[in-house]
Every structure is written in structure tokens, then in C-alpha cells.
Write a structure and sequence with these properties.
The protein is of the alpha/beta class and 263 residues long. It folds into 2 domains: 3-191 and 229-256, Rossmann fold (3-Layer(aba) Sandwich), CATH 3.40.50; 192-228. 46% of the residues lie in helices and 13% in strands. It is built from 8 helices and 7 strands. It has helices at residues 22-33, 46-54, 70-84, 107-135, 156-175, 194-206, 211-222, 231-241; strands at residues 13-16, 37-41, 60-63, 89-92, 138-143, 181-188, 253-256. It has a 7-stranded parallel beta sheet, sandwiched between helices. Helix 1 crosses helix 8. It is globular. Bound molecules: nicotinamide-adenine-dinucleotide. One of its GO terms (molecular function) is 3-hydroxybutyrate dehydrogenase activity. Belongs to the short-chain dehydrogenases/reductases (SDR) family. This is 3-hydroxybutyrate dehydrogenase.
Length: 263
């Protein structure tokens, strides 16, 4: 039977940061189809994202927290419990990218990437854990990246932040190891989302090649499958991490990378 048909997450509340597009929206949709009420967050098309979640027959709300601001993050967590009465699943997904060599990397871009991709995960987890511990059950799912485990040229801030997310995942998993709360990371390779489309467009422009050739080049350099992973596949892994079968997975790094890290 398909996991989503069991509605295993009925009555639970999930906060998915950065979920108005891409992987976040894919995960929010998968959790909604498994029955969870969803708090969306992010700066994209809010109405379209809300409609997509509500189509799954669950309740949905949006909070416009800027994940680079700790006070906003506290407000987001309070909003979830006030709106739906609980906070059971936290998906730390909001993320941004900037590609430049270290010598030319603007310092303010570094600060911004560390704030959104790493510090937000700490602040949100810090706010969520007491609530989950009190309920005796919880899931924290951190969307890291293959770049939490290896580096790539031009991505100093992103790689540093994602390695930090992997470290934070391990510590949070240890600190909750004797509870019903688990903390794990998903490490996607290339997934076709607005964040990656921008890198394809930049490559096409930089090397004066077509978008199709830039796409093949981007995939060919790193991802042995030659294909993107999909947001639906990442969503399915998140639903699995919320299942009973995953109850003793703690501090894991689940790679969904078309073989990137098998090389
Ligand atoms: P995306 O650009 O499609 O989505 C990012 C989301 O985060 C959007 O909803 C955006 O509005 C939101 N966001 C950005 N800054 C924010 C802020 N300050 N506060 C609140 N929300 C903010 O990107 P994506 O590719 O879906 O990336 C999602 C996550 O997956 C990121 O953490 C990214 O690092 C990670 N990831 C992506 C890939 C990939 O190939 N796409 C691979 C590995 C990891």
C-alpha cells in the first residue's frame, strides 16, 4: 500500500520552512497527503502553495517569517501551535545559494547564507524540541545536501552551512536519543528547482551554451544517474522519516543524489 494512503500523519502538525516552492513545497505536499496539517513559510506564490496543500484535504496556513531573523522564527513556531494546537514535525528546508570564489565572495552574502541555511535550523530546532519532548513524539528533518558531506568550487558559504547542518543534526539526535523525538538529515544531489535553475541559467550565460547543454553539463559533472532527483522523491523520504519504521533512525544522513557520493 502507498504510504500516503494510510494517512499515518492525520492530526499531526508540520512546519516546513521555505515551502512556497521547490523541495519544501514537495515535502509539504507529501506530508499533507499523509494527513498532516501544514504550516507553510517562504516568499514565493503563497496562494498557489496553500491551494496545493488544501487539495490534499488537510488544513494549511502560511507564516511569512524571514528565517534569517531569530525573532521571526520564534513567532513561526508559536503560530504553528496557536493555529493547529501542536507542533509534531519540523522540516528545516529554507535555503539560499550564491556561487563565487572565496576571494570574491561578498561578506554580506556569507552572513546571509549562514543565517538562513544554518542558524535558522538551530533556532527552529531550539524552539521545537521542548514542545515535541512534552508530547513524547516528534520529527526534525533537516534538508542538508550532498554539500553537507563534500565540497564544490565556488560554494564556500553553502558548503560550510550544510556541513554545519550535518553536525547540528548529530548533536540534536544525541540529545534526544532517549526520547520519542528523532532528528535526521536528507542530503539531496541535484533536484530541479528555482535554486538550481538559476545555476543552469548562469552556466549557460557564462559559457555561451544553450540551457539544454548547460543542464547536461551540470548533471554530467557530478550526478552519475544523469537525471535530477524529484521533489516528490524527497517528499517520500520525509514521510518515511515520520513513520514508525524510522523511529530508531537518529542522526542519519539520507543521500538522494543519483550516485553523486558513491564515486
Ligand atoms: P527554492 O529556491 O525552490 O526554495 C527555497 C525556499 O526557501 C523558497 O520557498 C523561498 O521563498 C524560501 N526562502 C528563501 N529565503 C528565505 C528566508 N530568508 N526566510 C524564509 N524562507 C526563505 O530552493 P530548493 O532547491 O527547493 O531548496 C530547498 C532546500 O533544499 C535548501 O535548503 C537547499 O539548500 C536544499 N537543497 C537543494 C538542492 C537542489 O538541487 N535543488 C540540493 C540539495 C539541497
Amino acid at each position: 500500500m502507498h504510504l500516503s494512503q494510510t494517512l499515518a500523519l492525520a492530526g499531526k502538525t508540520a512546519v516546513v520552512t521555505g515551502s512556497t516552492s521547490g523541495i519544501g513545497l514537495g515535502i509539504a505536499t507529501a506530508l499533507a497527503r499523509a494527513g498532516a496539517n501544514i504550516v507553510l513559510n517562504g516568499f514565493g506564490d503563497v496562494a498557489a502553495a496553500l491551494a496545493r496543500i488544501e487539495a490534499a484535504g488537510v488544513r494549511a496556513a502560511h507564516h511569512d517569517a524571514d528565517m534569517s531573523r531569530p525573532a521571526d522564527i520564534e513567532a513561526l513556531m508559536a503560530f504553528a501551535t496557536n493555529t493547529f494546537g501542536s507542533l509534531d514535525i519540523l522540516v528545516n528546508n529554507a535555503g539560499i545559494q550564491y556561487v563565487e570564489t572565496i576571494e570574491h565572495f561578498p561578506a554580506e552574502r556569507w552572513d546571509q547564507i549562514i543565517a538562513v541555511n544554518l542558524s535558522a535550523t538551530f533556532h527552529a530546532t531550539r524552539a521545537a524540541l521542548p514542545i515535541m519532548r512534552a508530547a513524547g513524539w516528534g520529527r526534525v528533518i533537516n534538508i542538508a545536501s550532498v554539500h553537507g558531506l563534500v565540497g564544490s568550487v565556488g560554494k564556500s558559504a553553502y558548503v560550510a552551512a550544510k556541513h554545519g547542518v550535518i553536525g547540528l543534526t548529530k548533536v540534536a539526535a544525541l540529545e534526544t536519543a532517549r526520547s520519542g523525538v528523532t532528528v535526521n538529515a536528507i542530503c539531496p544531489g541535484w533536484v530541479l528547482t528555482p535554486l538550481v535553475q538559476k545555476q543552469i541559467d548562469d552556466l549557460a550565460h557564462r559559457e555561451s551554451i544553450s540551457t539544454e547543454d548547460a543542464t547536461l553539463k551540470l548533471l554530467g559533472e557530478k550526478q552519475p544517474s544523469g537525471r535530477f532527483a524529484s521533489v516528490e522523491q524527497i517528499g517520500g523520504v520525509a514521510v518515511f522519516l515520520c513513520s514508525e519504521a524510522a523511529s530508531e533512525m537518529r542522526g542519519a544522513e539520507l543521500k538522494v543524489d543519483g550516485g553523486w557520493l558513491a564515486q
